[in-house]
Amino acid sequence: MASNLPPKPTLEHSTTTSGGLAHEHHERPRGMLRWLLTTNHKEIGTLYLIFSLTMFFIGGIFALVVRAELFQPGLQLVQPEFFNQMTTMHGLIMVFGAVMPAFVGLANWMVPLQVGAPDMALPRLNNFSFWLLPVAFTLLLSTLLMPGGGPNFGWTFYAPLSTTYAPPSTTFFILSLHMAGISSILGAINIIATILNLRAPGMRLMDMPLFVWTWLITAFLLIAVMPILAGVITMMLMDINFGTSFFNAAGGGDPVLFQHLFWFFGHPEVYIMILPAFGIVSAIIPTFARKPLFGYASMVYATASIAILSFLVWAHHMFVVGLPLVAELFFMFTTMLIAVPTGVKVFNWIATLFQGSITFETAMLFALAFVVLFSIGGFSGLMLAIAPADFQYHDTYFVVAHFHYVLVPGAIFAIMAGVYYWLPKWTGHYPDERLGRWHFWMSVIGVNLTFFPMHFSGLAGMPRRIPDYALQFADFNMVSSVGALMFGVSQLLFVWGVIKCVRGGEKAPAKAWEGAEDLEWSVPSPAPLHTFDTPPDFKPVTH
Amino acid sequence: MRKTLAWIMGAGSFLGLASSTLANGWNMPAGVTDVSREIYSLHMTIFWICVVIGIVVFGVMFYSLFRYRRSRGAKSANFHENTSVEVVWTAVPLLILVGMALPATATLKRMYDASEADLDVMVTGQQWRWHYEYLGENVSFTSSLSTPRSQINGEEEKGENYLLDVDQPLVLPVGRKVRFLMTSDDVIHSWWVPDLAVKQDSIPGFVNENWVRIEEPGIYRGQCAELCGKDHAFMPVVVRALEGDEFDSWLAERRKEAEAEASGVDREWSMDELMERGEQVYGAICATCHQPDGSGAEPTFPALAGNEALLNDRDRHIDVVLNGVSGTPMAAFRSNLNPVELAAVITYERNAWGNESGDVVQPSEIQALLEQ
Ligand code: HEM
Ligand SMILES: [Cu+2]
């Protein structure tokens, strides 16, 4: 396939716009201090991405512990207490430590470049938002070493398992989640301020690249729901330490209230983890199909309607908690409805491919796999939306298959596609295509081997979050475990590819991809530390 | 591209092969009730709808990827909008969904109608076993995992129903409408039997309803579905469905046993009798947390062996077992165990594993406390 790739644009193309280059203003601190004190959006973006990758590997190791224990029936490697800590930490780390910071990192790097701004609107706040994260997650990880162990109640931490019955370290878990939440809210405020105030003159909202649009909407979601999470964990804190009974039935509290609050945060949260991915894919597919994105406006409207609907579907996670019939029906209908705008997006991407002039660079491969595999997750989502059937699916591996399809070959593939797509801009070098293709195919095979069989084990009756299982689930679990190992190992290829690209490789011009249109491609590659000190000349492209 | 196709075909044939060699189920069971079959058919309908949409959508996608490759000389068109197409692909999915929502609504309504039941069973989740009470019948018992530890730890070969066996299954009649009332003594559990299509959370402080009308006699197995702590994987559900008359005589038998047990409250029990009975109760109920040797698991589950504070305070010991300790996982057992069981297990805890208090707690004493 290598020979099928088109020649890269030549270096002569690297004309840059007037605002493309700027000069260093002042002496900057060196060494560690430079990174600790930096207020530069590119450096902070890099910090976020490195942090996210680190968490991705830590969370991945936890997942491999889980899969190793589940390789065969019986308890072999770990005891149930530790197993539960591994599933919980895996979920928390991947959601709050890997996926969300990766998107914030990409936003830091790309939003100012895509709207023609010199930096984020609030650079010092930006530094603070980032540095909260290493503190929060060091604290979270340290709970594993505390007496009684770390959080063991699942990433959804349902009360009263997470309050009355929780290990003593839970208070630290709450503190670290508060910090991660503050970081997210501050990051979101910064992104909104940047997008609304610092766009290049002449760039209207409906001229913005979709990555900017999806992030704008995501940032509003974050501001809306992170305080709910903060509220619910504060109520837990009070129940645990100050004798209140918000969620303690024995004291007149209501354990179901916990779930309503959690999922009122939690469902928008799952969209927080996918909307920016839609934006990335909407940049990559037109670039390598060499054709404008089909239905730009409908993409924006679909994103907005998904965001609004996401506040109205939370109880689809609670179909079996004993809601009244009308509530079940309401949440079933709204959940089915959300599949419509989701479908529109997929159709738009495919219409973009139709009659294009398509090439298969690594970024494109990941974006295409995203479209297919995310859709499979959408299909199982549609099945789960059917409330009567959810009485059978709920809390089984079928749900595990669903959300891993939308999150791993969904969110994470989109992040990787974005990294391969923007690496030339960040480093000035093209990523190694051969290595990229190896990484891609190993990941695609690994991901499907891991998660496809989970549909079957779930339908056949295997509950989620169990360290040991009945014999009829053995074959599926063995395949999943082998796939997980393969997926995990192939991520080393990713790291290798990125390091290689940072160190050298074929030089990239300003406009690294022939079909790429947005503003970031008008500044030199690698992008100098300061860009757009004077606003660029923005000419709307056809959207 | 050819490689991609080869890979897809390879994967397809792998899945085909896998499906034929996997003897065990890999789809939702259709089950043995009207409701379970309706759910199964909803499941299959929505599944096939997804398959058809998938074939069309991915078909167009892969066609485009193949046909419009630049390496085949494709030149890109420049269109980026088409209102009628966009209206169609918004409206058609909407219509399909309405078509799906109608039967789903009908089924859900049936599932929610638990009225006019012939038998009421109270199901109480406890870490980590199920307690069943036949309401108004004076019959109740606890059902716990009976798979031996040695099988779990791999010291012995795993049996056919590994992890899906209990000491006492829930016995239900065929052909009658049974209403379940679900609650919990501690954390949230979820009572689930796939063949009956009943999955309902059991939540402390709530009583949830669900119901079933089983059509075929047999043994139906399931598991707790909601993460409930350490032994979540080890609290199976087993339902034994009997023909109506067999069920009636089983229930009568159990009622008689319960009456016999109740009469035991009045007589004086010897230390040996209490120790023997207490060991059984301890093994079935207490050992999951406090460990078979009474060593506990600090800091959450205190040790009972050599626990001076406890041994020096007999009244507190009785109080803790009867009423639990609020704010901790220690549950109140006053309504889950009968006076004989309570007296026996307390006596056992005060005299086992080197605890040599010599105390005997008589069922009559517990009975008196319960009546206060
Ligand atoms: C077509 C769109 C979708 C529909 C109709 C849908 C529907 C559902 C339903 C009904 C459930 C609850 C299942 C159960 O617990 O019984 C669920 C779970 C879940 N979904 Fe989706 N979903 C969709 C897309 C997504 C997307 C885009 C994401 C995230 C990127 C996502 C992430 C999740 C997660 C994380 C869970 C499970 C959380 C947990 O219990 O741990 N879903 N989905
Ligand atoms: Cu949801």
Automatic annotation (TrEMBL), chain A:
Keywords: Cell membrane, Copper, Electron transport, Heme, Iron, Membrane, Metal-binding, Respiratory chain, Translocase, Transmembrane, Transmembrane helix, Transport. It catalyses: 4 Fe(II)-[cytochrome c] + O2 + 8 H(+)(in) = 4 Fe(III)-[cytochrome c] + 2 H2O + 4 H(+)(out). Residues 1-26 are annotated as: Disordered. It is a multi-pass membrane protein. GO terms for biological process: electron transport coupled proton transport; oxidative phosphorylation; respiratory electron transport chain. It comes from the Bacteria. Its EC number is 7.1.1.9. InterPro entries: Cyt_c_oxase-like_su1_dom (IPR023616), Cyt_c_oxase-like_su1_sf (IPR036927), Cyt_C_Oxase_1 (IPR000883), Cyt_c_Oxase_su1_BS (IPR023615), Cyt_c_oxase_su1_dom (IPR033944), Cyt_c_oxidase_su1_bac (IPR014241). The chain crosses the membrane at residues 47-68, 88-109, 130-150, 170-198, 210-238, 270-289, 296-317, 329-351, 363-387, 399-423, 435-456, 476-499. One of its GO terms (molecular function) is metal ion binding. Pfam families: COX1. Pathway: Energy metabolism; oxidative phosphorylation. Its main location: membrane. It is found in: Cell membrane; Membrane. Residues 29-539 form the Cytochrome oxidase subunit I profile domain. One of its GO terms (cellular component) is respiratory chain complex IV. Cytochrome c oxidase is the component of the respiratory chain that catalyzes the reduction of oxygen to water. Subunits 1-3 form the functional core of the enzyme complex. CO I is the catalytic subunit of the enzyme. Electrons originating in cytochrome c are transferred via the copper A center of subunit 2 and heme A of subunit 1 to the bimetallic center formed by heme A3 and copper B. This is Cytochrome c oxidase subunit 1. It comes from Litchfieldella anticariensis (strain DSM 16096 / CECT 5854 / CIP 108499 / LMG 22089 / FP35) (Halomonas anticariensis).
TrEMBL record, chain B:
Coiled coil: none annotated. It is a multi-pass membrane protein. One of its GO terms (biological process) is ATP synthesis coupled electron transport. It catalyses: 4 Fe(II)-[cytochrome c] + O2 + 8 H(+)(in) = 4 Fe(III)-[cytochrome c] + 2 H2O + 4 H(+)(out). One of its GO terms (molecular function) is copper ion binding. The chain crosses the membrane at residues 39-66, 87-106. It comes from the Bacteria. Residues 273-353 form the Cytochrome c domain. Residues 18-115 form the Cytochrome oxidase subunit II transmembrane region profile domain. Its EC number is 7.1.1.9. GO terms for cellular component: plasma membrane. Keywords: Copper, Electron transport, Heme, Iron, Membrane, Metal-binding, Respiratory chain, Signal, Translocase, Transmembrane, Transmembrane helix, Transport. Residues 1-23 form the signal peptide. InterPro entries: CcO_II, CcO_II-like_C, Copper_CuA, Cupredoxin, Cyt_c-like_dom, Cyt_c-like_dom_sf, Cyt_c_oxidase_su2, Cyt_c_oxidase_su2_TM_dom. Binds a copper A center. Its cofactor is Cu cation. It is found in: Cell membrane; Membrane. Residues 116-253 form the Cytochrome oxidase subunit II copper A binding domain. Belongs to the cytochrome c oxidase subunit 2 family. Subunits I and II form the functional core of the enzyme complex. Electrons originating in cytochrome c are transferred via heme a and Cu(A) to the binuclear center formed by heme a3 and Cu(B). NCBIfam families: CoxB (TIGR02866). This is Cytochrome c oxidase subunit 2.
